[in-house]
């Protein structure tokens, strides 16, 4: 066997090893990195295997994540602690996407109110079960002149009811105002780069909140990357939105029932008072009281 044949067999052996990892679902492009640029048949074969491997690896990851999302969705639906439910929604969304930070807003009176703020790098955990109060003011959906506030990415998503991905907040031409984000970065030394902002819709298709994820990280290098389109995240958001909507509806129903009970009690008390004041005995007491006051004045 000649030296040239030995040299050719080594790349082929590596390609076969890469094929084996494809079958196992753990292919990594680094396995063939130095072969992908070759102009010969070896390079062509490496590129074919690489494309196939990346596709299979992606689908395998999606399947694994989906197996995780379904139990998470069930757990969210069964959660009776509202703060824990809100917190779990953000935590699981960060886990699925590899996001370093996440914020959850709830829509109340045409404003987006911060309810969960998490940032792993800065060790920030506010709202939910943390016990740490969120002091950020809510975001208004409308400007003072009544026009829609589409300059803020979160309010834009709530108004337009569609998700928005931004690869780099410092270089985007999308027209969003990231001045608040940049001020936060300046004060903390953080670098908010990639964004994925999604509307949360209730059963009647009305927006009930907004989920914002920041700085997706490459699992291999830790580098900040743009958020990829992810069906698994969409499934998680759908399940979480259903759980959140159900809880909100149930809470509103309990509040209405409590309010109704108060009104009934007030009416009952008013009715009892009326029954007493309409009696001849009560009227006689009133007359005697007036006579006594009159006698005191005469003295």
Note the main attributes of this structure.
299 residues, single chain, eight-stranded antiparallel sheet, 3 domains, 8 strands, alpha+beta, 7 helices, Beta-Lactamase
Short structural summary:
54% of the residues lie in helices and 16% in strands. It contains 7 helices and 8 strands; from the N terminus they run αααββββαβαβββαα.
In CATH, the homologous superfamily of the largest domain goes by the name GAF domain
| Count of runs of 4 or more consecutive helical residues | 7
Overall mean pLDDT score?
Answer: 82
The helix fraction, in percent, is 40-55%
Task: Measure the end-to-end span.
Answer: 138 Å
Contiguous runs where pLDDT drops below 50 for at least 5 residues? none
Structural class: alpha+beta
Describe this structure in words.
The structure is a single chain. This protein is an alpha+beta fold. It folds into three domains: 3-58, no CATH class; 81-243, GAF domain (Beta-Lactamase, 2-Layer Sandwich), CATH 3.30.450.40; 252-298. 54% of the residues lie in helices and 16% in strands. The chain has seven helices and eight strands. Strands 1, 2, 3, 4, 5, 6, 7 and 8 form an eight-stranded antiparallel beta sheet that branches. α2 (41-78) packs antiparallel against α3 (82-97) and α2 (41-78) runs parallel beside α6.
